[in-house]
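Q: Fold this one first, please.
A: Sequence and structure below.
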Amino acid sequence: MEQVYKSFKAIPQVQTYYKHEVPARLNYQKNIRIGPIVVIADEGYVLSSRADYKRDNGGHGFDNYLTSMRAVFMARGPGFKKNVTIDSIENVNVHALICGLLDIRCPPTNGSIIRFKDAFINPDDF
């Protein structure tokens, strides 16, 4: 495993981490689906085993703090105020929002419905 780590670490356009070194904001350390080595390509680069790989117009797996990784989120319905803009949210919070709107028990995640409170007509309902 050390040789694999060193090989990726030598590539200038990627960030290479052992699982325990991954920045905490990515929430990878305790995820059982994350392997022992994490490699994240810099913006504008891709990792592929194919020499003839052609990049399409979309992509994922980049650092979620990049502006290019952001998306538009819009919500509409009886529980939401009209014409409200809130600060940016992380996708992990959408799960908590959906569970709250459907009034179902949400399994523990790193997300929170609190990020949406300013958009609710009755925030105390959530």
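Q: Good. Now the second chain.
A: Here it is, same layout.
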Amino acid sequence: MELLPNNPYLLALAILTLLNAGLVALLAFWFWRYQKKQRALLAGEEVANLEDLVLKHKKLLSSHNKNLRELGQILEELVEKNKLNIQKAGLVRFSPFAETGGNMSFSLALLDGQNNGIVISSLPSREGPRIYAKPVEHGQSKYQLMDEERQAIEQANQKSNIKIQN
């Protein structure tokens, strides 16, 4: 004990040793926390360290990106093909003659995404109903259209669902 108060170098060395021991304890605690977090990250994984885990996930991400690109191309093809499907319809019911009632006649327009399709009309006659079909290209027909057929085409262009107009 008498050496410490008399020798300032030993006192400084003792203080530095205590500080060093404190720093070692602090570093050990931080290292223990780091290892705990690393074990939690690696739990359930078939890799030995974080580097292998990152590489594994990088490969997985690359695979997912490739799949997303392929799905994007498929979606673009489906959207393009869908333009040829019937997307719009318009239905107009009417009575062609003043003496008949009940709106038993109709004009039905069925159009795709480019306004191409067909308009079908049914008209009564003494021999039975007559059904007419006229092609539609870009919302127009090269055949003469009745007012109700034009209304059905306009209605199809306004909405993509069937709406009955009396």
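Q: Anything worth noting on the second one?
A: The CA atoms of residues 21 and 145 lie 98 Å apart.
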